[in-house]
Design a protein that fits this description.
316 residues, mainly alpha, two-stranded antiparallel sheet, 13 helices, globular, disordered C terminus, terpene synthase activity
Amino acid sequence: MDARPKTIYLPDTMVNWPWPRTINPHYEDVKAEVDASFHDFKALSPKSQEAFDKCDFEHLQSSCDLMNLFFIVEEYTDMENEAVTKERMDIVLDALHNPHKIRPEGECILGKIARQFWARAIQSASLPSQRHFLETFDEYFNSVVVEALDREQGRRHSLDDYIKLQCATVEMGMDLPDEVFYHPIIMDLTNYITELIFIDNDMTSYSKEQVAGNEFHNLISIVMLELDLDSGSMMAWAAHYHTEVQKQFIDGLAKVPSWGPSVNVLVKEYLNGAANWVRASHSWGFESQRYFGTMGPEIRQTRLVPLLPGPDRKAM
């Protein structure tokens, strides 16, 4: 009997994406500083710290700090019930709204990490971008709490508001007026970016998440059930969906209004940064070891992902 694990073909969704993979020239210096600072918190167990160290976040300081915050929030809420999750997210929210307040002795370490992230970020973030970020964080706050409730009740809910936060960090060094940030076309383009990252993340994480029992929060698992598809057909469906959203984003760029030369430069920088985030997130899925362990480079070449045994999987 063939004991080899079954595999699933992972389509290359980014083969025609116009924004190539690049490394920020300050990456190594910023990464070393942020990693050293995060290690000082001693917030993770040895096993979780090892997993964190393998997640090679490729961003400047605010983005690195934010990714670290995402990681630790997930670590401290992923298996908790709604009450504990809400208590811990309240701490994070209070720390973000009060970055100069020393956190209470004995409080969950999330408060200290969130406070340090935001205290650093506001040193260079414009006032409008700070306000936009905090508004978006409220959505993320609610999504994490609702996800905990969904987990308790065995209910699936689309919870990827954190991606909007990642896009929001692109704006931090800018001064985008509200009429730009909240313009319907800009909001549509930001939503397309959210969808692209969401699709790619759920495609690459599918095998790992269905083993861990997180299938209620994975696009592949959910739509497989709704459309009665096997996982291979579902990957093809998701890749087609990804292509359609890419086209919507690129076509939408031609519809962006003009706000004058000085603002137009910022808008272009914001949208290019968001588009680069799609590429960075896709590359991270293969170059970190979070989803594929050491097999990431091989899987990127072969596109074949070992499909680990999971609950109630349809036959291939």
